[in-house]
Each structure stands twice: as C-alpha cells, then as structure tokens.
Amino acid sequence: MSTPNNLPIKIYRTDDTVELSIIWEIFNKCNYNCSYCFSYGHHDKKINVTLEHAICFIDRIVDHYMAKLNYKKIIISITGGEPTIWKDLVPLCEYAYSKNIYVGITSNGSAPIIFWEKHSHFFDFICLSYHPEHCSPVDFVEKYKVICAQKNTVLPAARIMMHRQHNYWERSIKVYEMIKQLANYQVECVAIQKKCTNNTWLFIPYESETMNDFIKNTKFEFHLSDHLIFRPPEALFNHKLLRQNYNIEKLIPNDLINEHSNKFTNWSCHIGLEQLFINASGEIYRATCLQGDLVGLLKNCKDIPFPSQPIICKKEFCHCTSDISISKSTHID
Ligand code: SF4
Ligand code: SF4
Q1: Which of 26, 27, 84, 108 maximizes ligand 1 atoms within 8 Å of its Cβ, making it the mutation to test the pocket?
Q2: pLDDT per residue as tens digits for the range 107-129
Q3: Ligand 2 cavity residues, CB under 6 Å
Q4: Which pLDDT tens digit goes with each residue over 65-105?
Q5: Distance from the CA of 333 to the center of ligand 1, in angstroms?
Q6: What is the 3-state secondary structure (H, E, C) of the chain?
Q7: How many A from CA of 108 to the centre of ligand 1?
Q8: Domains and CATH numbers, the chain
C-alpha cells in the first residue's frame, strides 16, 4: 500500500524492454457477454477489421518506427472482443513475425483445444483471462494446463476477473487457488473497475472488507518449477518503478491499480512514442486512455502522422495495465 513517502515518481523501461507496444483491440465481438465488459458495451459487436488494412498498418509501423527511428523491439498485443474467433488472426500473426514484430494475445481461453495445440507457439505472451459468468473453474484451469503442455510455448499468465457478485467471486477465488497448485504459473487477480463517461475509470470498493482486503493485498505471482518445458519469455516488459523514497522495484501494473497508486495527473507520459492503441472501430490513439488527439485511422493507414513528443497527462486515473507501463515521470522530459 502506498504511503505519502513511497508514492511513485517515475516509471521507465529497461534497455531490453520493447520500444513500442501496440495494443490492438482487433474488434469487439466476443462469444462471451460479461456484465462488466468494457468492449464498447453490448451493442454493435462486430468484426470491422480486414487483413488488408492490418497488413498495411504493419508496413507503416515497419517504415516509421523500425526503418526511420531504428526501433528494434516492437510488440503487437492483440485483444478484443475475443481475438481467436477471427479467421484471419493466424495470417496476421504470421505477417507480423515475418517483419520481426512480436505478437502477444489476451484471450478468454474459450477457443477449442486444437487452436491452442496448433498456435500457442506463435505468441510471445499469452494472457488468459478468467470470466466467472461464462466458464467453470475446472474448465478454465484445464485449458490453462493444455496451453502449459504445448511445446515451445511461453508460460501463460492467468488474469482472474474478481467479480463483485458473491457467487461469481467464489468461482474466481477457486480458480486462483487451483492455479496456485500447479507446478508452473503466473497469476494475478484483477479488480473490476467501472467505466464512466469520457473513458474515465473508477475503482468502486467491493461490498465487503474481506473482498477489498483481498484485492489490495493479492499481488502478481509467478512460479516456475520446471524451466525446461517453457520457451523462455523474451524480456519484453521489464519496466521499473521509482518511488519517492528512492526505492526501485519491478513494475507490476496491476499491483499499482490494486494499491490505488495509478494516478499520474500532470506527469509527462511517452504514449505515442512507446505505445499505440487501435480500437475496435479502427481508430488509432496514443494509448487506451485516449489522451492526445486521434493519431489516424486504420482504413487510411498510408496517411498516419505518428506522434513525435510525449504529452502531459490530464487524467485522474491511469486505468489500463498497458498504459501504466509506459515511461512517465513527474518531471517534463
Ligand atoms: S470475455 Fe472479455 S471481451 Fe468478452 S464479453 Fe467478457 S469482458 Fe468482454
Ligand atoms: S492516463 Fe494516459 S497519459 Fe495519463 S499516465 Fe496513463 S497512459 Fe499516460
């Protein structure tokens, strides 16, 4: 928990960390319908993206960030909706790889086992989110184990959505406990935040102190007892956090949210330089927080004026773990 003298004052990336992270909400269609879903509400769910536009955008990234700015490490983090329902997901990944771009995925894990058997090796990170309204604890953990058992695959991270309703909360707790009995795992418990107007997010306390304490005190956990069976992950997300008391620690963004230290108003922030966000409508922004102007449109990918300067944050909260990871500091740089 943050106290006045250990508040964050700087977040920065280490040399081996990705220089550009592209968060791509590829579409908002999903086979689940979670009550807390923030993917454009529950109406207007469709697949707008085309493989042609996606490839054109990747070519622009290669031209601008790799060829002109000499970036070496770029990752596309594919999210949704549920990305695995898109027929062109695999061709998109193949194209990105052909350009030396890393690809990660956030999925609800519902794709059939054969999908994971054939394609798990594609991804440089796999984030498997647990949604208790739609999946039993046993089914989720079984799928997690299937992915862990694939050859040449990174250790997946389980992101457990901590539902506010008691019966679903219990299911999430069950998943948390079952995952922690495995020999190898990464797991974190994610508080459900409330999306307000103007893309602002609020942490609303849970109904019981027990739940609130669990959220505050449960940190990201990583356990690897069999190093040989997993592809060692690249050091893609090695960000550091400097606190007011000069302590430096590895940044775990979800832990900052859970301790309510995700407030960077008036900080200088490198979105657009280290991050881009594409929403389900094909609009390109600097980050999921939508700070700064619209950068461009996927369908007009040949005409995207990529940002060249950091911006000053005007948001009260930085809600998204990817946004939190972007370099930022209390000083203008
Ligand atoms: S799985 Fe994710 S994208 Fe799908 S409905 Fe649930 S929260 Fe929304
Ligand atoms: S809300 Fe946006 S601009 Fe503000 S700190 Fe987070 S990523 Fe940066």
Answers
A1: 108
A2: 999 999 999 999 999 899 999 99
A3: 264, 267, 269, 271, 287, 289, 291, 313, 315, 318, 323, 326, 328
A4: 999 999 999 999 999 899 999 999 999 999 999 999 999 99
A5: 37
A6: CCCHHHCEEEEEECCCCCCEEEEEECCCCCCCCCCCCCCCCCCCCCCCCCHHHHHHHHHHHHHHHHHHCCCCCEEEEEECCCHHHCCCHHHHHHHHHHCCCEEEEEECCCCCHHHHHHHHHHCCEEEEEECCCCCCHHHHHHHHHHHHCCCCCCCCEEEEEECCCHHHHHHHHHHHHHHCCCCEEEEEEEECCEECHHHCEECCCCCCHHHHHHHHHCCCEEEECCHHHCCCCCCCCCEEEEECCCCEEECCHHHHHHCCCCCCCCCEECECCCEEEECCCCEEECCCCCCCCCCEEHHHCCCCCCCCCCEECCCCCCCCHHHHCCCEECCCC
A7: 7
A8: 4-329 (3.20.20)
